[in-house]
């Protein structure tokens, strides 16, 4: 969980959670309406991506709603691959899913240190014992022709 505070006011935040051994899911990225257009969402996403990579995950998954064009555009600008038809009717699609592979070509992302790998392993072990997670979506990284690309 990451929160951005100014004084005693929380102005932005985001979180991630374990989805599977290689995938983290980013959840609840938001910015206060009074603090938008200041780059806070990009800052939060960069910090979350860095921590996800440091814990040894290789993939990031996230969703947004059909009535959030700013979020959709942000994720596209940050290099996330849409797992839906970008020319389709977003209301009919419902949740708009995105995915991003963490590879060395993505600047600023690298897996660091044994300590972070151990922390990630512990987190995954505890979560597996404590919670039931929904299955990872079967459809990933599809091109417009419907052929799997990765």
Please identify the structural class as seen in this structure: alpha+beta
DSSP summary, beta strand count = 6
What order do the strands of the largest sheet run in, or round the barrel if closed?
1-2-3-4-6-5
Determine Rg (CA atoms, Å).
16 Å
Overall helicity: 25-40%
CATH topology: Aminopeptidase
Mean pLDDT: 76
C-alpha termini separation: 29 Å
Shape assignment: globular
What is the fourth-level CATH superfamily?
Gcn5-related N-acetyltransferase (GNAT)
Output the number of helix runs.
Answer: 4
Please outline the major beta sheet.
Answer: 6 strands, mixed
The unreliable regions are 104-111, 139-145
**Can you tell me the CATH class?**
Alpha Beta
Strand portion: 25-35%
The quaternary structure here is single chain
CATH-derived architecture: 3-Layer(aba) Sandwich
């Amino acid at each position: 969980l990451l929160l951005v505070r100014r004084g005693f006011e929380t102005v932005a935040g985001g979180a991630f959670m374990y989805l599977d051994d290689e995938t983290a899911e980013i959840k609840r990225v938001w910015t206060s309406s009074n603090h938008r257009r200041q780059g806070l969402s990009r800052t939060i996403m960069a910090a979350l991506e860095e921590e996800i990579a440091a814990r040894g995950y290789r993939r990031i998954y996230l969703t947004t709603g059909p009535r959030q064009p700013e979020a959709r555009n942000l994720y596209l600008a940050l290099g996330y691959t849409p797992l839906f038809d970008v020319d389709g009717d977003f209301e009919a699609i419902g949740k708009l899913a995105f995915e991003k592979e963490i590879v060395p070509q993505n600047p600023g992302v690298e897996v660091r240190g044994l300590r972070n790998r151990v922390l990630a392993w512990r987190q995954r072990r505890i979560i597996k014992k404590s919670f039931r997670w929904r299955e990872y979506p079967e459809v990933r990284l599809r091109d417009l022709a419907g052929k799997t690309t990765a």
